[in-house]
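Friendly challenge for the regulars: who can give me the structure tokens for this chain first? No prize, just bragging rights.
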Amino acid sequence: MVPDGEAIVTGSVKRLFPRLSKDEALASLLLERAQRNLIKYQSQARLYENKYGQPFSEFRRMIVESEAGAEKEQDYFDWELAVTGVEDMRLEIDCLSGVLDQ
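First reply, four minutes later:
Bragging rights claimed.
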């Protein structure tokens, strides 16, 4: 017999989130993940800011206006990913927080 995934999830929600609906519990878990991701991306961006002593916008301008070496190019792409991740996670957190505030 195959376990009923829906029943298992519903039971877990009732036990772990007794005051929340299934959608609210899912939103709560997703919010936690987005918050962890935000911290991770912020930490990565901070590492590059410390390494280069400037914000990403200035570093981007320097990369665009000059010939960067392989290390700086890779740092540029990784830093851009971190900055984009921060923006994306902030939007995600705002959306999920709205679901939980209703």
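The radius of gyration is 20 Å. Residues 54-93 form one domain. Your move, everyone else.
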